[in-house]
Amino acid sequence: MELPARAAAGGNGAQNALQESIVRGQAAVALLTPTRSRTKQRPDPVIHRVDTRPLDFGVDEIVAVGKLRNEMLRLPDFLRHHRRLGVGRFLAIDDRSDDGTRAFLLDQPDVHVFEIREPFAESSGGARWTSAVLDQFAPGRWALTLDADELFVYPGCERFDLRWLCRYLESTGADCMTAEMVDMYPRWLGGPERYHAGESLIAFSPYFDSDTYVKRRRRGFPTNYLVGGARARLFYDEPMPPKIALYDALVQLLEPYGLARLLPAVNITRWQPPLLTKVPLARWSPGRRYIAAGHLMAPAGKAGDVTGALLHFKFLHDFTDKVAIAVREGNYYLGSVEYQRYAERLDQNPSFELIYPNSLIYQSSDDLVRCGLMRLSPAYQAATRQP
């Protein structure tokens, strides 16, 4: 069964401007390399429905949407965590899994499975796919957009479910919520301990960086974003050459004003750690689009006065294999340049300690609030104290 995704209706001007900014390599995204060409608009991808379950969403049912490939290791705890938060339905875009992922998903009563026969390298990190599925199946609905290695949390999530959170956001006039990716890790990478599917991801990888983040500004939405965290500390510790550091500083200075395009095109991606800020929760509207793997959204939304976090579980024992596949296939940005960086470090030593003196152990959402990785307003605090 093939379902043509609904064409975007409106907001394309803002999207074009953002995509042009990204392709020009301005540090707005800290992911992409400079170029002077304009990104051409393409038709939305064709969605192929795999399951046959009725798509009978409840009126206020929260859906979760995401692309995945070979994630049987993480899926049981991913589903358990988000079911507990109140996700009623999962829309999974399976990208050629061959580890039992698809069969497992088809056996879940609250999961609908799709595939999109487009090379992942052309999907903007999966952003085209998730946007198309949201357009087709969740217009006007609150939806979480997640990867299978992410667990969404927010202040008070242990006591208040997603329906409560979305009602609060609506009461403030917000239509989306930003979140920071927080890399979670065990004590050792490549150690003898193995994570087993179904175990608690947080219990196995409880550590996170408390103070290795840098705040930056850009054009586009969200304007403020973070880089840094454990991946930057562990894999991007090579100092920038002086000329590259000067160029990067100029880009950071000029980008918020749209002037970085005046600089000559210089590829500095080797020294740019991954972007951490996303917009995982939004009331989806026609014409809205995710860009650059969900790190940008256009047109701009109205973010709530509370932020969340995406606990990111990359450093399990399959990390080395996933890096090797990404480098071999070259499907990620710039031929998987980020994964090439990981591979260089793993070639030097495939097993090393991940913690540092300021590593913290995650016990609840309060831990992220205390170190500033999640923020909340007095109004939100007051709402959580209501019966």
Outline:
With 387 residues, the protein is an alpha+beta fold. It has twelve helices and 18 strands.
Please render the helix and strand layout as text.
Elements: E1 2-4, H1 12-23, E2 46-49, E3 62-68, H2 75-85, E4 87-94, H3 101-106, E5 111-115, H4 127-137, E6 142-145, E7 150-153, H5 162-171, E8 176-185, E9 188-189, H6 201-204, E10 207-209, E11 213-217, E12 224-228, H7 229-235, H8 242-254, E13 277-283, E14 289-291, E15 296-298, E16 308-312, H9 319-329, H10 333-348, E17 352-353, E18 359-361, H11 365-370, H12 378-384
Parallel strand pairs: 3-4, 3-6, 4-5, 8-16
Antiparallel strand pairs: 1-2, 2-5, 6-13, 7-16, 8-10, 8-13, 9-17, 10-18, 11-12, 14-15
Helix pairs in contact: 9-10
What does this structure look like?
There is one protein chain. With 387 residues, the protein is an alpha+beta fold. The chain is 29% helix and 21% strand. The protein has 12 helices and 18 strands. Strands 1, 2, 3, 4, 5, 6, 7, 8, 10, 13, 16 and 18 form a 12-stranded mixed beta sheet that branches. The protein has a two-stranded antiparallel ribbon with strand order 9-17. A hairpin with a 6-residue loop joins strand 11 (213-217) and strand 12. Helix 9 crosses helix 10 (333-348). It is globular and about 55 Å long. The model is unreliable at 1-39 (pLDDT under 50).
